[in-house]
Amino acid sequence: MRLIKVLLLSTISLPVIHAYAQDKTGYVPLSQKEKQKVEQLLNQMTVEEKAHQLASFYPNADKRLNVPHMQAGESLHGIVAPGATTFPQAIAIASSWDPALVERVSGAIASEARALGIHHVYTPMLGVVRDARWGRFEEGYSEDPYLVSKIGVAFINGLQGTGRFRFDKNHVVATAKHFVADSEPLLGANGAAVEISLRSLHEVHLPPFRAAVQEAHVGAIMPAHHSLNGVPCHINTYTLNDVLRKEYGFDGLVVSDNNDIRWVQDRLFATENREETIRKSLEAGVHTELAFKQTWADKRMYGPPLVALVKSGKVPMKLLDDAARKVLEFKVALHLENEENPMGKEMTQLQKETKNADVNADVFFSQIDGSLSSPRSNYKTVLNNPAHDALALEAARKSIILLKNSNGLLPFKKDQFKKIAVIGPNADTIRLGTYSTQQPKHFITVRQGIEKAIGENGQVLYAKGTDIQHPNAAQIQAAVTVANQAEVIVLVLGDDDKTVMENVDRDDINLPGAQDDLMKAMVATGKPVVLVLLHGRPAAIQYAKDNVPAILDGWFLGQETGVAVAEAIFGDLNPSGKLTVTYPRNVGQVPAFYNSLIPGRPREIWNAAYDPTYPFGYGISYTTFKYSDLKLSKSEMVAVDTVYAEVKIQNTGKVKGDEIVQLYIRDNVSSLARPIKELKGFKRITLEPGAVQTVTFPISLRALEFWKDGKWITEPGAFTIMVGPNSVDLTNVSLKLTQ
Questions:
Q1: Mean pLDDT of all residues in the chain?
Q2: Which of 257, 362, 496, 658 does the annotation list as catalytic?
Q3: Distances (CA, A) of 654 to 573, 651, 688, 693, 725
Q4: Residue 7 in this model has a pLDDT that exceeds 80
């Protein structure tokens, strides 16, 4: 019997447990001399001066010790400052599927930030967005953790710089946020409690942060507003210490979100008093505090309350020292002492009125627009760099998605129509999306772009059609009158700055206001309609798919919106973007995402289809592409191997075009239910008509792993390797992982 047991055990296929080396180098690249400087400053500081360092966004200079101010700011898709370059919104630029482009964009943003006196930015947002009701949807990149990781790493690298350029005079400290899982809230409500399994946490929501830490060495992390499985994120020692620091090896700065340390007690009721709140947040490693200016003097936690607790011995000095040390490390690494005005601007009236609130109060207050920042003397030259405008246009061009083009309606010839009706609430107004400057250097509307494109070849007839916030039937009828005078209609619909933003969620995903009624009225004219979407969340556009002949999706395309849209309409640009999220048919399909776990029963919905309007990864072109000859370098692999998948792509159309080739993997048999498919690779290529290119994807053990019982593992067995232009139209081959 004993022999039989041994023989049986020898035939069992055991999982491979993955252990990844932690690398804490590079977070704060300091020389030994610079490290000594940090310790010297820390030793010279009073308790009040140490606490003073923990102010994020607000004044934190120490004039007595010549410690410079470190200014924070917002830069989701451009610095939130007058005259800054505005690039496509986060969800839009991710639709380019072009990490190299993303890194160049964030590099330009970083240079503008430093020119404006901003050293630390609260971006990127690495939430895996799955719920279209959520008001912050536009701030994310994708519903897929792999794609979020790739775009996020690129954005961080551009902001912070790499190699010898890391944290130099033209780069900033990036902040990966919000840690963690805020993008799948209950009811789609911002800040709502999140209750998910540890497996979902580690496989879906944590991977982008893991990549940000281990691949990009992100300088800072910002916890989220909500409670995660009952514990507020700002005092969550499991996520912040056990996972972020011990497992991932993070050694950077953790900055609170707005007022969230105080709200651990005042909103989430997870602590009994200020002492417990402050101590637990510091024990979780939250180094700095961000709070509204109007509450900063009397309700902040890391000011006088912290000082009193440290002096009384109720909060250990070591916790304060650890936090202040981390801030000082970044100030030294950024060489802020070399700025033209390292201490920030002089005292404002608000600062004078509240100067007794804290040590060095003359540099402790500022307005939410970052007015404390001290721009360099050449800041206008940097902001008005023509290369930045050209880059904003390139990003907009690569982000536009062609969703439908029946009978080749697009592109138009510039002399094809004598009268073009440009209709819609987003046709001739500024639409930039959330966390955007209120004073862009310029914005080209769709109406302006089309007028310039056709010149004297035709006439543009314009009608707003409806107000998004206050619609009325007369506006729609006026638009019908205008449309009937034209030969073709360009209908520009979507969101405004009130229908999609932080703390503005929705309980439906139809186009807001009377825009669906306007669309139906345009279709009823019998004229060809091109729908252009400028928006911040997936909209229920099944009617458009069924009835409108051509659909261009731009999300929010930045300052060059009208130029890029006009180029796409008239064929100067061949659209090449792809959806990074699923477009549900209606709110009943939310949350919607392609990589769901394999279900126990086939799905059926009464009197309705269950498939989405458009799937993840979808987008078409003015040309066509043929996929062929998918093969693997070998059909079996062991743990140490890397197998390569190859596929041939041919441009079978008549015009040059870009294609985004996508690789998906399915674990055929597993000890846990696994997703139907998971994105594990993508590549953007450019092909002339008739040209053929072989695209190669590496497949390593990491592409096959999943999280089980607290570990990343792979199990021997069969996997399906799939390649195609989107998550649905795929060809496949088999791969076997052996022991």
A1: 92
A2: 257
A3: 14, 8, 8, 16, 18
A4: no
